[in-house]
Amino acid sequence: MTLEDLLAREAIRDVMAKYTTSGDRLRIDDFVSCFTADAVMESEHVPEERTFRYEGREAIRAWQARWLEGKGDTHGATFVRHHLSTSKIDLTGKDSARARTYWVAWTDIGPDHAGYYLDTFRKVDGEWLIAHRRVRLDWEADTSLFRTAVANSNG
């Protein structure tokens, strides 16, 4: 492993942390800046009524704006904290990488839901960004505050 590889992996981890903290705090500009202009963000392995797919920064921005505005009574949480844990990052080229990262979301009820991200990253103008994020749900609490949130925030 080279110094350049280590720096790439750390930059990718930084983007993941920025995505998580920005999303939890609804800092839309910071959240959207984690993605390439043509990024895709989509769900996998969730019930049909909770699937989503957003293509491009503007679609992702509009989705986050609906959360911030509370459109559709998105959820009843007074706080959300996504915690990232194991992350396997594979550099697939000089300017490309894939990652699998486990996450769990905490809300007022404690552990609310959990899963993993399957990501493709691309380096654009010297900056690592998410080009494609697949959000997989493995588990949710029976009393999850997010059970209807995704469906209610779809545009």
TrEMBL record:
Domain SnoaL-like span(s) in chain numbering: 5-134
CDD domains: NTF2_like
The protein, known as: SnoaL-like domain-containing protein
Organism lineage: Bacteria, Pseudomonadati, Pseudomonadota, Alphaproteobacteria, Sphingomonadales
Organism superkingdom: Bacteria
InterPro entries, per database record: NTF2-like_dom_sf (IPR032710), SnoaL-like (IPR037401)
